[in-house]
Design a protein that fits this description.
single chain, alpha+beta, 78 residues, 2 helices, three-stranded antiparallel beta sheet
Length: 78
């Protein structure tokens, strides 16, 4: 049985622009708001990824955002 709560929605971005980054150290998660997207995207999550990204920069966050947005399943932040 399949139940569709919301039909697929496509958003086109001419470029990835990070508007804000939040470092949730108690959750070991780093999320970003991308211009043009309705909700945040998880850039790094979990102790291993969080430790590897501990000294993130604007450039590394932008590169990671582009990488995450190209995944088949985007890790959305809620």
């Amino acid at each position: 049985m399949e139940i569709v709560l919301q039909p697929a929605q496509t958003i086109s971005l001419s470029a990835v622009q990070v508007e804000a980054v939040r470092d949730l150290f108690t959750e070991q998660k780093i999320i970003a708001r991308i211009k043009g997207l309705p909700k945040g995207v998880v850039l790094w999550s979990g102790s291993t990824e969080y430790a590897a990204a501990s000294a993130w920069t604007n450039a590394s966050a932008l590169a990671r955002a582009a990488e995450v947005l190209s995944l088949s399943s985007i890790p959305w932040a809620f």
